[in-house]
TrEMBL record, chains A, B:
Keyword terms of this UniProt record: Lyase
InterPro entries in UniProt: PCD_sf, Pterin_deHydtase
Highest rank taxon of the organism: Bacteria
Catalytic activity: (4aS,6R)-4a-hydroxy-L-erythro-5,6,7,8-tetrahydrobiopterin = (6R)-L-erythro-6,7-dihydrobiopterin + H2O
Record lineage: Bacteria, Pseudomonadati, Pseudomonadota, Alphaproteobacteria, Rhodobacterales
Residues annotated as signal peptide: none
Protein name: Putative pterin-4-alpha-carbinolamine dehydratase
UniProt entry tagged with the keyword Metal-binding: no
Annotated GO MF terms: 4-alpha-hydroxytetrahydrobiopterin dehydratase activity
Matching CDD domains: PCD_DCoH_subfamily_b
Amino acid sequence: MTDETRETMFAPLFAAGWTLTDGRDAITKTYQFANFIDAFGFMTRAAIWAEKWNHHPEWTNIYKTVVVTLTTHDAGGLSALDAKLGDKLDKLAGGTIG
Amino acid sequence: MTDETRETMFAPLFAAGWTLTDGRDAITKTYQFANFIDAFGFMTRAAIWAEKWNHHPEWTNIYKTVVVTLTTHDAGGLSALDAKLGDKLDKLAGGTIG
């Protein structure tokens, strides 16, 4: 992927709070929820989408915080799948019907 | 907690593959599952126990791997709650009825 393609493809996610991951061709976002139930509820919905699409996040949960990193191992870096999953995660986190 | 108390309380977990976390008064274990569904299924069962006991893990999931760190923030380090949750996680990961 060229830098220009990447910039275009991920512009909406960068505008939504995603950033390039330090030292990797990946994107990262930190979500904060009201409590653990909301945080893990988000992860549960996201997990089913991830499995359905066979594209899985790297993620860390500490109580009401979830830090997500997306990259495409098979592609050696970012791909259109990451843009698609990132957008889905934002919708799930916002309560939009997934 | 004295070093002796800690050693006694966590001896069964150390024997089961838990180790002291670098630079923290915490314990860590890495679980490997057959696939993402098994890994996240383990997390889902563990999440409900964690919420029920009001004691939550710090954990990272990458596909079929789950890395768990346990500590008791209110106690500023390890407590009996961590021993209890660590034992529960091992039972859940092993398929023992939780």
